[in-house]
């Protein structure tokens, strides 16, 4: 496969995954903002949404302080934000169009239809309920793409690059959600383990589609260290760091076999998975969750660069 084709497939999946992620953090911010002020809501949820997206500098330059309207605009509809939902869907379609012959008609239609439907939406006419429907539509569009890829694409190198892009992006997103919740979201006046803390962790679980899974695995009330265990180390949880790392390693192994050689990307992915497999959540909390997650985000970014150097250039 040509490197430019692999690059387009890889980034097609990353952009769709990123659009889904942005919809989920906006949904979480809306849920947390719905709390009465007396229950601990203080506006930090909108600031945390910007922090999770890793776009604070660009946001402050364009809008200043974070509030509901400015964050909704910036993360969902802003043309100037290269990571807004609008930009992600546009870039996904452009990448899909560039490799149209490498995609099944179902995958192409999922991406193209999402972009066309997005352009029919009236941003200015959206009240809170309409925006909530838009968020659900965005998540459904991502599921439609995932389903089309899973059900219709050949299990060849093109499929591996699609899966690889989605797993790299998903790992980064899960890590950022954990880090921002642990360090930014809970007001200083609120106790850890209190009602607001419980509600926020519960919301985070719902936004990564893990609330039911948490109940199945732990069978007890929500506790921060167990949420972290689920989203970091549990390979049965599709959005966990361990599960994403296993997927990345598996897809890179498939590419290594298909192309007859392994390289730096395979070695880096295997090392990351090995470290996650050997860890326990108690060790992570003892050394610091923030430090662990920050190191993982950096390591995941380096792995993405190594993948690009080995296959996408």
Q: Helices, strands, pairings?
A:
Layout: H1 3-33, H2 44-53, H3 56-63, H4 68-77, H5 85-98, H6 105-118, H7 128-152, H8 157-185, H9 195-207, H10 211-218, H11 224-232, H12 241-259, H13 264-278, H14 281-287, H15 289-312
Helix pairs in contact: 1-2, 1-4, 1-5, 1-7, 1-8, 1-9, 2-8, 5-6, 6-7, 8-12, 8-15, 12-13, 13-15
Describe the structure.
With 313 residues, the protein is mainly α. The chain has two domains: 1-152, no CATH class; 155-313, no CATH class. The chain has helices at 3-33, 44-53, 56-63, 68-77, 85-98, 105-118, 128-152, 157-185, 195-207, 211-218, 224-232, 241-259, 264-278, 281-287, 289-312. α1 (3-33) runs antiparallel to α4 (68-77), α2 packs antiparallel against α8 and α12 (241-259) packs antiparallel against α13. The model is unreliable at 184-193 (pLDDT under 50).
Question: What would you say about this model in short?
Answer:
This protein has helices spanning 3-33, 44-53, 56-63, 68-77, 85-98, 105-118, 128-152, 157-185, 195-207, 211-218, 224-232, 241-259, 264-278, 281-287, 289-312. The protein is mainly alpha-helical.
């Amino acid at each position: 496969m040509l490197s430019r084709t692999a690059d387009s497939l890889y980034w097609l999946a990353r952009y769709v995954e990123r659009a889904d992620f942005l919809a989920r953090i906006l949904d979480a911010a809306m849920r947390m903002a719905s709390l009465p002020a007396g229950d601990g809501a203080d506006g930090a949820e909108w600031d945390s949404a910007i922090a999770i997206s890793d776009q604070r500098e660009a946001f402050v330059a364009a809008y200043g302080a974070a509030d509901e309207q400015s964050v909704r605009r910036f993360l969902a509809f802003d043309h100037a934000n290269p990571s807004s939902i609008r930009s992600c869907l546009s870039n996904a379609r452009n990448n899909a169009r560039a490799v149209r012959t490498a995609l099944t008609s179902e995958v192409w239609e999922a991406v193209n239809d999402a972009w066309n439907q997005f352009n029919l939406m009236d941003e200015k006419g959206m009240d809170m309920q309409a925006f909530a429907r838009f968020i659900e539509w965005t998540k459904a569009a991502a599921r439609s793409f995932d389903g089309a890829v899973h059900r219709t694409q050949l299990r060849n190198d093109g499929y591996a690059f699609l899966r690889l892009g989605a797993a790299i992006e998903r790992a980064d997103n899960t890590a950022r959600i954990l880090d921002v919740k642990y360090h930014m979201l809970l007001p200083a006046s609120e106790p850890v383990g209190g009602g607001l803390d419980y509600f926020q962790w519960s919301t985070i679980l719902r936004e990564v589609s893990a609330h039911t899974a948490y109940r199945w695995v732990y069978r007890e009330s929500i506790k921060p260290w167990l949420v972290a265990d689920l989203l970091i180390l549990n390979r049965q949880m599709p959005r966990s760091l361990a599960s994403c790392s296993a997927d990345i390693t598996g897809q890179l192994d498939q590419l290594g076999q298909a192309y007859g050689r392994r390289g730096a990307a395979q070695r880096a992915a295997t090392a990351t998975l090995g470290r996650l497999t050997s860890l326990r959540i108690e060790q992570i909390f003892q050394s610091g969750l923030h430090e662990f997650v920050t190191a993982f985000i950096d390591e995941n970014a380096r792995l993405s660069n190594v993948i690009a150097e080995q296959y996408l250039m």
